[in-house]
Amino acid sequence: MDGIEVYSGKLTDKENKFAKKVCRKLDLSGTGGSDAHSRVDVGKCVTTFEMDIRDEGDLIKQLKEGKFKGGYFRK
Predict the structure, then answer these.
(1) pTM exceeding 0.85
(2) Which among 41, 51, 68, 73 is least buried, having the fewest CB atoms inside 10 angstroms?
(3) How far apart are CA 10 and CA 14, in angstroms?
(4) Rounded to the nearest 5°, which phi and psi values hold at 41?
């Protein structure tokens, strides 16, 4: 496992904080995902990467190296 989703657009702030706590305890990086099942949830959370992602190989490399972080794009 290379990371855990710690920002989810479908979860409450309390649930996201718990996920971040677990992530830190496991010494992993955290991702963000909108988990969009409806239009209002699209774009709430994101994962940003340290370098540009040009292909699947770049994505896998960045994930394995922990060079990413999750966050809120909008609440």
Answers:
(1) no
(2) 51
(3) 12
(4) -90, -10
